[in-house]
Write a structure and sequence with these properties.
Blueprint lengths: L4 H6 L1 E7 L3 H10 L4 E6 L4 E7 H4 L3 H7 L2 E8 L1 H10 L1 H17 L5 E5 L6 H10 L14 H11 L3 E9 L2 E8 L12 E5 L3 E10 L1 E2 L6 E2 L4 E4 L1 E3 L4 E3 L3 E10 L2 E5 L1 E19 L2 E6 L9 E12 L2 E21 L2 H20 L4 E13 L2 E13 L1 E5 L3
Parallel strand pairs: 5-7
Antiparallel strand pairs: 1-3, 1-4, 2-3, 6-7, 8-12, 8-23, 9-11, 9-15, 10-12, 13-14, 15-22, 16-22, 17-18, 17-20, 19-20, 21-22
Length: 393
Amino acid sequence: MKSSFLLSMRGYVLIEVRGGRFEKLVNALMEQRMTIWDIRIVDETNAELYIVLKDFFRLRPVLKETGCRVHVRKRYGVPFLLDKLEKRKIFALGLIGFVIGLYMLSSVVWQVRVEGNELISKQQVLEAAKEQGIYKLQWKYRLKNTDVMSRALQGQLPGTAWVGVEVHGTHIVIKIVEATVPDKQPLLSPRHLVASKSGMITYILAEKGRPLVKANTYVKKGDILISGVLGDDVNRQTVVASGEVRGLVWYTPQVEVPLTQQYKVYTGEVKDRSYFVVGNRALQLTGYGKTGFEQFETIPERKTLQLGKFVLPIGWLHERVMQVNIMEKATDPQEAKKLGIEAAKKEILASAGKEAKVVNEKILHEKTENGKVYMEVHLEVEESITQEQPIVP
């Protein structure tokens, strides 16, 4: 007799029968209409057969009558599965709780993000979203349709051309497209363009106003380069002077460069740490104790649990703590000079403006003492030297 779904529901066992009166036992079982099948003779005193669980509990009188003994070899069916689960109640409850917990976590809004806003503050968008039921720890089933929320938010946020609401798992993204408003040109009062620094004029272009200097002339700080006054004393008109004036400006920065440079080297020694992360909190799982490294660098790597399109606020964080050594390397004095000059040029060009450039460089004085190179450097920098000066009537 072959096992079937009905047998699995009722339960059955494979038993080993021991004793010399096996034929009499089988006949007695058949007479009492017990369900047995797949009878197999192992040797003269042992045999195996399958029997339904209900009939197994009726074997005792027959065994006494025939003098046979039985040993259960295997158990099959739903009754035995339920018995195992009953013995492991804590495990079953934990499994059910885990499934319920995952469902609850994936049914709550954990993050609300705003994108595309520049003029409208993030706080203003979040307050308007809260009025529409969009906020952290909100149940997702309480949210309205995304199109309805988008139209409502656009009505609450003046200055927006379009508002979109997207739901990505447990995260909600509010995308803002702000309306383009033409920039209001400020009202400018009449002015001169004067020299912001002393230097030699290399280029001048007067877009509006009257130029008072020419190329290759020296000017001092405060001299008028492009005048905002047109005409003479009789026919006089003031305008907003505009244009571009570049000139050579001289700098003499003091530079010092150490002859010993430090750099970082990885030793290859690594210690790993792992954490279980829920929201913004983490529970350390491995890598307890101190690293034992005097100097180290930590490289984090985070992974978030995701069910399809649903991004859950739980995950894992893995940290690699890598030991490093700070090494020292002697620098040639000539190389140190180059490093010092480059550093001085970068510092001056950063303050002189984007279009500034160094056209000439020269070392005026230098000396080496106490493990350092000291220099006084002369730099010629071509840069814009204009600044505004209002015309006072």
